[in-house]
Recover the amino acids of this structure.
């Protein structure tokens, strides 16, 4: 009996020892979705309202800046238009002032020329009286003094006699009534005699000199 029991124990399978398992490093636990993702602001929260207010204020400021720029551009354009209008007005006024001065000067010259022209026949008569033979020296002297005063008055008015004798004939200043053969020493086309004196005021001829011209 004992031999059979020992035999059974020998034949019975021995329990196998488990081989050592290699150590496996477990992966680190992944952060939970709540921890990984930043917390989103819930609508209506103070942070969301603050951000919305900040963005809304920025948009409003941008609109104000654009409006101010538009107003500035409009003001600059109006200023340029006003400056251009002012320059044109100043130029027009300067032209008007110069034109008015020329017109006044011309009107004064025309009036003065007309007045002098009315007095020239009197001067012609006095000159003929002074050139005529006269036994009364006091009378002749009085006529000459009157002529001198008339010449002084004409000079003050800037009215001058046209110098014509022995000068080349100038149709702008003289009027020829006769041509005579040139004498010895006379040039053709020169004035050899003055029938009536001519006068002018500056460039304006009051009366042309009436002359005789050598052929």
């Amino acid at each position: 009996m004992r031999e059979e029991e020992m035999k059974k124990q020998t034949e019975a399978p021995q329990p196998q020892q488990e081989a050592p398992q290699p150590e496996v490093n477990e992966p680190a636990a992944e952060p939970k979705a709540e921890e990984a993702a930043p917390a989103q602001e819930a609508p209506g929260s103070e942070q969301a309202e603050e951000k919305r207010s900040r963005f809304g204020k920025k948009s409003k400021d941008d609109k104000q800046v654009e409006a101010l720029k538009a107003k500035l551009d409009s003001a600059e354009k109006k200023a340029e238009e006003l400056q251009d209008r002012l320059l044109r007005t100043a130029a027009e006024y300067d032209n008007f002032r110069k034109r008015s001065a020329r017109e006044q000067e011309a009107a004064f010259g025309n009036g003065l020329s007309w007045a002098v022209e009315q007095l020239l026949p009197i001067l012609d008569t006095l000159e003929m009286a002074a050139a005529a033979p006269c036994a009364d020296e006091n009378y002749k002297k009085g006529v000459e003094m009157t002529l001198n005063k008339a010449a002084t008055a004409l000079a003050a008015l800037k009215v001058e006699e046209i110098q014509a004798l022995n000068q080349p004939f100038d149709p702008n200043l003289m009027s020829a009534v006769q041509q005579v053969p040139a004498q010895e020493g006379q040039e053709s086309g020169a004035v050899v005699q003055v029938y009536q004196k001519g006068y002018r005021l500056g460039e304006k001829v009051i009366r042309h000199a009436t002359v005789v011209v050598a052929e």
Q: What stands out?
A: The longest strand covers residues 174-180. Strands lie at 159-161, 174-180, 191-196, 199-201, 204-207, 209-214. The CA atoms of residues 184 and 214 lie 11 Å apart.
